[in-house]
Structure formats: C-alpha cells, structure tokens
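Model it.
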Amino acid sequence: MKPWLHSLNARSFIVQLLGLAVVLGAVGLFHLQTLRQSVHGEAARVGETAAAIFREELGQHPERLQPGVLQGVADRLSGKLVNVSRLRFLDASGTVVADSRPLQQDAPQQTVGGTRKGTIQITAPILGRYDPVRRSNQIGTVVVEVDLALAERRVRRSFLQSMLLLLALIPLYWLIEYFALGRSTSRRLRTTASAATALAAGDYSARARVRGRDEIGQLGSAFDAMAAELQSTHERLQLEIHERHEIQQRIGELNRILEAGVELAQTQNRVLGVLNELSRMLQASSSLTEALEILPGYCKTLLQDSSGMIYLLHPSRDHLERVAEFGAPQGDDDFFNPANCWALRLGKTHAARAGSPLLCAHIGDALPGVEYQCAPLQAQSDALGMLHLQFNDGEGEVEGAAQATRNLLVAALSEQVGIALANLKLRETLRQQSIKDPLTGLFNRRYLEETLQREIDRAQRIDDRLVVVMLDVDHFKRFNDTFGHDAGDHVLKQVGRILSTSTRSSDIACRHGGEEFVLVLPQAGIRDGIARAEQIRQLVAELSLNFGGRPLGPLTVSLGVASIDAQTRSADALLKRADELLFDAKRQGRDRVVAESDPDAVE
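Modeled.
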C-alpha cells in the first residue's frame, strides 16, 4: 500500500480529487448565489412561451373565444407548460372568461394584489382580426402565473441530477485516464527512472527508450541522449585512464631501470674505487707477503656476501698452496694439485653448485645453497695461483643481472690481483736478481755493502754487538783446474747451502766474490762468531763431494772473525779487519778459524 501512495498515479489521483472538491464547492457556492436569478429568468421565459402558445391556439380561431372553449384550452395548455400554476383568459374588456385550476396542490393560496404569493404573473395580448369599432386587433389577454418554488425545486433537482451524473462520470474518467494515459505514462516514467538508476549505478549502456511527442517522450529522448553522451565521455575517460595507466607503468618501469642503472653505476663506481685503491696498495707493497696481508680485507669489502681463499702456485708448479683467506670458507686443504681445479685447467672463471658434475675436486663435500667460484690468477696467460670464492645464496639462485654483476666483479678482481701478483713477483725476482748471487742463492756483495752499514749503525745506536765472519775456500783454483769450472761451481753451491742452513733468520750470508763468503751475525759477540765459524768449518770438512762420477777430494775453508768496537764506524773498516784475520788463517795453514783478540777467544 505504501509504495502505491508514493507513486505518481496516487499523487495524481489525490490532486485531482482535491481539485474536484474545490471545483464542486465553487460551483455550489455559485449556484446558491445565482439560483434565484436563474429561476426568475426561467419562469419569465416559460410565461412568454405559454402566452405565445395561447395566442397561436386562439388568435386564428375567434370561434374559440366562448367561455367553455377557452376553459378547455386553458386546462389543456396548462398541463403542457412546465412550472405554470395558473392560466387565465381575459376578454377585450378585461373580464375573466376562463381560469384553469392550480396545477400544483402545494402552491400557496394567498393572493397579493390578485397574484398568489411565490408566483410570478406574465400577461400577453391575444391579437386577432382588426375591430373597427374598438380600433384594435386585440381580442383578449392571456395571464400566466408561474410557481417560483416549483421552478426552483425543478432547477435544483436538475442541478443535483447533473452533479450526480458528473460524479458518476468521474470514476469512469479516472479509469479511462488510468488505462489510457496513466498506465502508459507511469510505465514510461518507471522505465526512465529504472534507466536513471542503472546509469547512476555505473551502467552507462542503460537507455529509457521512451518514445512520444509529449513531455515524457521528450524527457526520455533527452535522457537517452544524455546517457549516450555520458557513455561516450566515460569510454573516452576510461581510454585516457588506461593510456595514462600504461604511461605511468612505462614511467615506473623506466624509473626502476634508471634506479637500477644508477645503483649499478654507484656499485660499479664503488667497486672501481676499491679496485683502484687495491691496485695502489698492491703496487705500494714491498713484498708478496705484505700484499697477501692486504688482499683479504679488500676481497671482503668487494664481495660482502662471500668468503674465500687465495692459493699461489708453487715454483715447482706441481701444487697450489693456500696463503690467505677471508670470511669463514669451507674446507681446510692447504695444498692441492692444479689438475683438481677446472678454472686452472680451462684458464677462466668456473662456477658450480652442489650436485654439479663439474664441481672442482678440491672443494670436497659441497654445501647446498652455496655457489663455488674459482678464478685463476694469471698474467700474460701464466698461471700464478687461484682465487676460490664461496657465495651462500640460500635456497634460491641469484637473478641474472645480479649473477652477471657478480661474475664481472670476480673477473675484475681476479684480473687485478693476478696482474698485481705478477708485478710483485717480477719486482721480487728483479730485486732478488739484484741482491742475490745466482749461483749460490746467497746475497751478493752489493746487498752486503748496503746492509752491513745499516746493521753497524743500528748496533751502535742501541749499544749492541755485531760480528762478521769472512770465509774462503782453500785451494779452490785446484778444483777449477783439475775438474773444470762446473765442478768449481758445484763446490761453491755446497758451501752456500751450508751457510744458508747454518744461519739464523736474522743473520746475513753473502757471497763476497769468487770463492770468498761473508757472514754477518747481528746481536752476537766474538765468542758466538767463533762458535758459528767453527761449526761451518767442520760441516764443510765433512763434505764428500762427487761431480761427473768422480770424487772431488777433501774440501776445507779458512775463516776470520771480527767484531765492531767504539772505533769501528764503517762497513769497509770492519770487512778489512775480517779479511786480514782470514789471511792470518791462510798463513797459519788453512782449515782454521782466526778471530780478534778476546779474553774469551778460543785458542
């Protein structure tokens, strides 16, 4: 019930009902105001009509003017005339010739001035033939009395019947309007409203499709045009939004690529900076040992998520030796054969994981989730060693870009380290060649002159002791002349080997020239020097040398021992004193040790 009350039909019905009530009320009020005027006018018209009929009946028939005939005519006419209560006929002299009986029994009987109350009297002449005596053609007069109350009741009854008929026609009108117009209007309005609701909900394809030339049809057409425009605008906006979304996605992708590029550039700059710093540090290193102490820290800085070990190829080239490590690498093999590493065999970086058939044999038991990389350290295609790396990546593998970056970094690091190690080895080789005797492997005279003066200055600065032992092979020319120079070289090598194995790490063993050797003993006195010299003399005397399948015979040496004192300020002076003592040993018969005078000297 409530939805119907809110419908357009209900509102139209209520408005029409209220309008009808207002119209009926106005009509009733107007009727009450004009009723009497209309009744009087109607009565006058009725009286005139009656007089006209009476004249027509009698005017052309003078023989009917007899009282009896007139009475009959009056009675007959009064029955035909509506609202006529009395009909009288007067002759030319004004005498009542005929008088009808009252047609309405309830008409008032009182007369006022010859006329009853509540009536209206109408007189009309009856004309006939001209009478020369009376000089008139009026043969009589008709007097008609109209009952006002009766006329009023009949008019009122007619008005009520009209109102009842109107009220009866109103439902019919409503039914006709509802079925003929209301349902069509309501249906078109509901269709338009449904389409508007669907459009508001986002269905831009909704259309009212209401046709007609009336306002509702125009409204439906306007709505469909608006919906079509909205749909077109929405599709255009959706296309623009889609294009903008694609542009934003492309911009986002470009931003990510740019950020990745910037991050990669920053990483590369950082790596290049660290590599350049590493290169400078390696170039500034004075020895291979110092360089190997620097390398692990830089490797950890460059490869933050890794651990590893550095191996160097032994001069014999039959094995690699672990010389440094960083992080916590797996495996404890300090040595392995070069054939056990794919990187050394292939001459390039090799990577593998647990379960791979190409896993290097020197790795041992590989851990899952760890990538192993071996990068050869080489220069000019000459293998120097190997950089072994372990990357703990967990369960998943590294993405392509990160893996490529890692591989490039490992390649750059191994190349840099390889070149640096080659330069250090070359530098070390050149240095050794400049300070070492190629035949005996002992330091040469040049190194002796540089080092001895430094050691003398140091000892005098800290008030320490220092001893120099000068050694010469007895009858060395005999070996050259008898067995050849190669045999002489063999003798010198053996003497050099004894000196190398009989000295401390702080001692300096040098070949002074020819068959003459010098031994510098820092922090040692005359007694220590004599003891060391005697030990060397005995070791040489115990040698049994053969060369070319021939025994070389006995070998002896003569030794002179000198130490620094307050007057000794230069290396040349100390070497001269030791040389003089050596000649004393030669003059005394060779194969002996001669030292400076000392309370503790051995006789």
